């Protein structure tokens, strides 16, 4: 993605200020009903698809608490009620979800099982389909107050899939004859999306007809500010109450009480090409593993605002550390002197080029001859997937839309994986991932996931280096903004200004 200049980004923050011009300097709304004020929010990425819920824009709708799903997830990734109050698996391929009564959308129409089934059906017909349905055959129909979901193959993760923001349930008025989706005024959450100004701003007002606890804030005024320096400056100047994704380089410039760090299910990983080139040899992969010092990356590049990786899954998943398996029988490292490799990464995430530079030095110190390639992600992804590089540094979300790591493991490390940068095809890995995918959600599935992690790590196809943290800026006037590792929630019914 090519980002606007700092000047344009700062202008966007000013637009945010103008959007909230009815809010006095103290941050309190002049509306006597809105005792929690209007929250000014600076967000990282502008909408890419007009806020279509079938795209990554869905996470904005979720973070603003304007669109809701049938299911929510708890900290462990287990399913919890949302727009569905109960669910049951009635056969190997069929699930029934009971729709919550008394819910109205922001356009005044009621939530019914038919409306929910309509959303799910449209999602299956979208082009491209939501990520959570990639490779999944799913049908939905209404029977009374229940949505009956049937999958082509037995799928123990259906409730978790329905928690994805990309399957947010919208009023039927959101779906246009031309196939586009307009979420303005079509959600069911505590905040009503009332206006979107292209890729610049969005406005939300409290929805007093909400089925649950009413929001304490009167509304949200959003500005899209791709430049991280500008987002941090907006917190310092008071132009924003909340700024998401503050860069590591800017965190030290903010008052300590205005920043928070939350471990993310995102791992900075070195993928090694196991199909062609020097890393086809497990002993050479082991040499790369032993050459890398993650602590230097954490302290030097991330200024201590990251966690050294002990595995693929990090501290955002507390159960992962508790269930980690020992890694016995790993190949011994060979002498890497004179081994030439090409190391690549992308520039869209600010820290990665510096990570690549440090890794280049570490690998060279171990004897490797390292050529470094850095491009924008849009210009390097195809080559990376084609195996054009010997090694690739990726900042990878390990818990995808279902809140479950199995989809990530399938995509990245199995023989048929759609995002297999390492070109790994290992029988033990495929067997372990397949077992995890077939296990019911809960403790048994988590144990199977850790077995799969161990199988992957034993190959040295991927060397996890560090787990990133999300740094969020909150003005001292903000109360109870969400600190969500999955970045699904940001402003809740409790979020307000003092």
Describe the 3D structure.
With 498 residues, this protein is of the alpha+beta class. It folds into three domains: 1-65 and 189-255 and 476-498, D-Maltodextrin-Binding Protein, domain 2; 67-182, D-Maltodextrin-Binding Protein, domain 2 (3-Layer(aba) Sandwich), CATH 3.40.190.10; 263-469, Roll (Dipeptide-binding Protein, domain 3), CATH 3.10.105.10. Helices cover 26% and strands 22% of the residues. It contains 14 helices and 19 strands. The chain has helices spanning 6-19, 58-63, 113-125, 158-161, 228-237, 248-251, 282-291, 294-301, 318-322, 352-365, 381-385, 406-413, 427-438, 443-458; strands spanning 38-43, 71-73, 79-81, 84-89, 94-99, 138-143, 146-151, 191-197, 201-206, 219-224, 242-243, 259-272, 306-308, 340-346, 369-375, 391-397, 462-474, 478-479, 496-497. Strands 1, 8, 9, 10, 11, 12, 13, 14, 15, 16 and 17 form an eleven-stranded mixed sheet that branches. Strands 4-5-7-6 form a four-stranded antiparallel sheet, covered by helices on one side. A hairpin with a 3-residue loop joins strand 8 and strand 9. Helix 12 packs antiparallel against helix 13 (427-438) and helix 13 packs antiparallel against helix 14. The protein is globular. The protein starts with 5 loop residues before the first helix and ends with a strand.
């Amino acid at each position: 993605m090519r980002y606007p200049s700092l000047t344009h980004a700062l202008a966007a923050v000013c637009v945010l200020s103008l959007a909230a011009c009815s809010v006095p300097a103290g941050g309190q709304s002049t509306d006597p009903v809105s005792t929690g004020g209007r929250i000014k929010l600076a967000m990282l990425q502008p909408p890419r698809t007009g806020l279509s819920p079938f795209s990554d824009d869905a996470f904005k709708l979720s973070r603003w608490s304007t669109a809701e799903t049938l299911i929510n997830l708890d900290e462990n990734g287990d399913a919890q009620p949302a727009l569905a109050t109960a669910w049951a698996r009635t056969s190997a391929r069929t699930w029934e979800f009971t729709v919550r009564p008394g819910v109205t959308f922001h356009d005044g129409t009621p939530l019914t099982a038919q409306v929910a089934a309509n959303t799910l059906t449209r999602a299956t017909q979208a082009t491209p389909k939501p990520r959570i349905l990639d490779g999944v055959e799913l049908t939905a129909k209404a029977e009374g107050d229940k949505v009956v979901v049937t999958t082509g193959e037995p799928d123990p993760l259906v409730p978790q899939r329905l928690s994805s923001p990309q399957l947010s349930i919208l009023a039927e008025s959101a779906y246009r004859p031309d196939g586009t989706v307009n979420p303005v005024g079509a959600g069911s959450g505590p905040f009503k999306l009332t206006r979107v100004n292209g890729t610049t701003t969005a406005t939300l007002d409290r929805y007093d007809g909400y089925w649950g606890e009413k929001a304490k804030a009167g509304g949200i005024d959003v500005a899209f500010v791709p430049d991280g320096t500008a987002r941090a400056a907006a917190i310092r100047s008071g132009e924003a109450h909340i700024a998401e994704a503050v860069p590591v380089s800017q965190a030290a410039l903010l008052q300590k009480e205005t920043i928070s760090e939350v471990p993310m299910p995102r791992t900075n990983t070195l993928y090694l090409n196991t199909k062609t080139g020097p890393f086809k040899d497990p002993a050479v992969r082991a040499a790369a593993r032993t050459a890398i010092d993650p602590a230097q990356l954490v302290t030097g590049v991330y200024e201590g605002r990251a966690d050294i990786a002990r595995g693929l899954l990090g501290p955002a998943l507390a159960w992962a550390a508790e269930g980690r398996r020992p890694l016995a029988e790993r190949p011994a490292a060979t002498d890497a002197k004179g081994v030439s490799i090409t190391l690549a990464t992308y520039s869209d995430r600010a820290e990665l080029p510096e990570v690549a530079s440090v890794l280049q030095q570490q690998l060279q110190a171990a004897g490797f001859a390292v050529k470094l390639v850095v491009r924008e992600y849009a210009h390097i992804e195809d080559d990376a997937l084609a195996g054009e590089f010997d090694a690739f540094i990726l900042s990878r979300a390990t818990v995808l839309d279902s809140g479950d790591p199995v989809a990530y493991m399938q995509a990245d490390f199995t023989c048929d994986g759609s995002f297999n940068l390492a070109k790994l095809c290992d029988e033990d890995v495929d067997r372990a991932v397949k077992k995890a995918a077939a296990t019911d959600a809960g403790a048994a599935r988590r144990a199977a996931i850790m077995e799969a992690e161990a199988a992957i790590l034993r190959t040295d196809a991927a060397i996890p280096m560090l787990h990133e943290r999300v740094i969020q800026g909150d003005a001292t006037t903000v109360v109870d903004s969400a600190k969500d590792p999955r970045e699904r929630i940001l402003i809740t019914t409790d979020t307000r200004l003092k």
